[in-house]
Amino acid sequence: MAGAVDLSGLKARADAKAVQEARAAAGQEPDGAASAGPGVVDVTDQSFPVEVIDRSANQLVVVLLMAPYSEQSQAMAAVLGKLAADDGGRWTLARVDVDGAPGVAQAFGAQSVPMVIAVAGGRAATAFAGAQPEQAVRQWLDDVLSQLPPEFGGVGGGAGVEGEADAPSDPRRDAAEQLAADGDYDGARAAYEAILHADPRDVEAAAAVKQMAFFARATRIEPGAVGRAAAAPGDVEQILAAADEELLGGAPADAFARLTAAIRTASGDDRTALRTRLLELFELFDPADPVVLAARRDLAAALF
User: Residues 108, 124: contact at Cβ < 8 Å?
Assistant: First the structure.
């Protein structure tokens, strides 16, 4: 989704944070931390926001996208696991089974495995695909670490990832992002609206206002909206709720198709409400997103 906040991770981050806090209160190890070896965690779609994004705020995280049936994946896991142990916690290896965590694989645009990505400060710095010998991976790691400031486990002069580490922080935006990460979407929306009021040209804040409005609405929907819509095919409110539930669950094509199908048979105020909602959902994405482009063509066909 477009804008200042990565919507694909916000709900998962809030959910994962709650799970991790509950596990910590029960004296249990965090998800993905058990028996993976020193400096190694196994990551799922649910734990990715905490184990990779949050962890990378102060440490280099090397993400390995792999598959258990891939010999090259297993070879890379062995090489990276050894190097992580050799470096004694200087960085963390995050292993991702792409079959069990398709959302993570999709986020990185993985076309094949193994794929290795260096993440620091919540951003992917560099990556490579395919199996590599230990010496080549060691050189790659050293090159990555040489570009990072000491607080990320690096030895560089503080230039940071793509020049971002030393960029001045905006307390207002940081506060808004924290509210969103904590699941307070109404508060986050208000915070972004204040930023937008101060600078009406801030396109990121404008996008984030729309995103937070969506999350505030969609997270209030009682689970099972898709089933309720199926049981009441003519109920526009149920259709709208079901589309929100599908989008929140990471299925935008399904949400768009549902609304477009309803538009084909609706009329009057119902049709207007459905069309308005669909256009609002389009605005949460990059206009060039292939899913949006296809849905816009379908909408045009439904309308004309």
Answer: yes
